[in-house]
Amino acid sequence: MHPDLTTVIELQEVDLKVAGLTVEIDALPKQIQTLQSQLDDFIHAHEERKKRLAANQKERKDLEGDIKEVQEKITKHKDQLYQVKTNDQYKAMLKEIEGEEANIRKIEDQILEKMIESEDLQTHVQDAAARLEGEKARVATEIKRLQEEQQKDLHERESLQARRKDLGAALSDSVLRLYERIRAGRNGIALAEVRGGLCMACNVWLRPQVYNDVRGGDALLTCDNCGRIMHYIEPPVDRSEAAEQVPGASA
After folding, report:
1. What pLDDT shows up at residue 249?
2. Dmax of the chain from CA atoms?
């Protein structure tokens, strides 16, 4: 195989690995931010429920105070019943007492609603409080793992970039320029594997002579259709078929 072709093939492999690592490295900060945001949302929801629970308890206390005030009015009205002088005044006072008692029932209904809401809030607050430290530990562990993975990827990319520099230096200027030009115009893929006379990058059949030249591997050839540098890899031998072709070979 042409020595430049061997180098170019490795160079392409290195570039693809670097590109993959770069995607992973660039994605890690967003993953960390997502984890932190999830924890922040969990804590925010927990604090909001605690505030709502405290407000609920205050509202219930205020309603209970309202009932006490109404009860005091009723007591005062009942005392006044003995002071009225006419039947109409007596009836009016009874009606006013009935109205106050109806107000108490309405307030009691509101207190019951607050109690039901309080029970639900209390359940959520207790559940979140029990989970909070576990969530903090889980997020911290995952963030640490992602940061370690990022450092590992950065180190590996740095090593690959050093290798890329060596490979580029081993190529002639013309071949390196050809590789870089094709790579820039083909989304980072400068090489195309050839199988059975077909360019696997663009699925176009090669002319027989070109296919034979690519199989020979003695020169750098580009696909007439997609322009990529072509290389041929010998297909793996099927052991079962090879055994059938050997006289006396056992199955």
Report:
1. 44
2. 133
